[in-house]
Amino acid sequence: MTRNRLKWLITVLVLVLAGASWTVNKFLIDRILQQEKEDVELWAKAIEFNNTNLYSDPQAVLDFVSSELIIKERTRIPMIVVDESDQIVASRFVDPEDQTPEIVEKLRRLNPSIPIQIPAGLEDSTMTTQYVLYGESDYIQLVRFVPLFQLGFVLILLGIGWASYQSIMQSEQSNLWVGMAKEAAHQLGTPISGLYGWLALMKEERSSPYVDEMSQDVDRLKHIAERFNKIGSTPERVPTSLKRELEHALDYMNRRLPKKEASIHLNVDSGTHEALFEAPINRELLQWAFENLMKNALDASQNGGAFQMDILLKPVKSGVQIDFKDYGNGIDKKEWKEVFRPGFSTKKRGWGLGLTLTKRIIEEYHQGTIHVLVSEKGKGTTFRVFLPCD
Q1: Of 212, 213, 226, 221, whose CA–CA distance to 194 is shortest?
Q2: Which helix (H) or strand (E) holds 263?
Q3: Which of 91, 176, 268, 338 is the most exposed place for a label (fewest CB within 10 A)?
């Protein structure tokens, strides 16, 4: 079963559960409402019977109605009796201070009124019509909230399920990253070993003036393989000068910049003690992150024109701060966070993994932070990196 199908299956099951719960509760509420209506009708008929037969056998009627219908509290349903001018003439379970025109309107909106026929007086056989208005018992009001509680419970379950699903997806994605990195390191290992052998022969025969340059690039390939091999493991970190590491990265990048007007400058306060730039880092991984930021800036240079980048390094409270400022195309503000997402890229070629790897190296392996500090279309972007000293 695919992940997408699993996600939809979970969603459908939760919705079915919520729908079934809502239906059952509605059925119960309707049944209780019907029962309460019948109770009120019985009470209304008892009042009507009481008033109609009061003069034939008053005591018997009063005893029966009082003991069985009025005094005995089967269900506490607020009820009032009003005449044709909406004046309250009797009530049950309604406090005297609440017997206002507002309660008449409120009860009339809740349920249909029940008409009863009452004699006009002791000697008058004329019948007048009065109306019984009733509301809902406390029990019904509580039951009405049950579906809301159930819906909230279902939403919590859905949230937990979705969070679990996302966690599984991220874990699988992380495992995929690790697997790809390990495989890349393994694949690079074989040709690197072969190249070292050929270089050894070329050095013995002095067959090429470019042997030293080739040797440096082969060493570089070895370092790249080591970088990939460290992904997914806990890298060793040792206190190192970030100033020296940036200088090494700049030296490597400056020698490989395109043959056009291009430059990368490192700006450091000359009065700052070298020890203030130290932080526990893994050199291989952090240089990889620095180079990715530089390459990303180079790719963002406007229309292949001149490239310039300024790197500002300074110590701050509990760490070291590094700003990578380019003068390229800039990034829309809505994409400031998206640039770190796997697969995000504004280039026609590439997988969009450079900044994702950079963020992982800085935040997961070095407990630092990286974010877009500022960016403006046509003027460039500044990425800010913070690395803790502890």
Answers
A1: 221
A2: strand 262-268
A3: 176
Q: Give me the pLDDT at residue 350, please.
A: 44
* DSSP string across 42-109: HHHHHHHHHHHSTTTSHHHHHHHIIIIIISS-SS---EEEE-TT--EEEEES--GGG-SHHHHHHHHH
**pLDDT per position as a tens digit, 295-325:** 888 877 755 557 788 999 999 988 999 999 9
- Spatial separation of the C-alpha atoms in residues 177 and 233, rounded to whole Å: 12
- DSSP assignment, residue 239? E
In a domain, 230, yes or no: no
DSSP track, 94-149? --GGG-SHHHHHHHHHHS--EEEEEESSSS---EEEEEEEE---HHHHHHHHHHHH
Predicted local confidence at residue 124, as pLDDT? 65
State whether residue 184 is helix, strand or coil.
helix
Q: How far apart are CA 146 and CA 150, in angstroms?
A: 6
pLDDT (tens digit per residue) in 326-361: 888 888 888 888 888 776 666 654 445 678 888 988
Boundaries of domain holding 43: 3-136
What is the bridge-based pairing of β-strands 307-316 and 262-268? parallel
Its pTM surpasses 0.85: no
Residue 176 lies in a domain: no
Spatial contact of 264 and 309, defined as CB atoms under 8 Å apart: yes
Q: Sheet of 114-119: strands edge to edge?
A: 88-92, 79-82, 127-134, 114-119
Confidence of residue 144 (pLDDT cuts 50, 70, 90): confident
Is 66 within a domain? Answer: yes
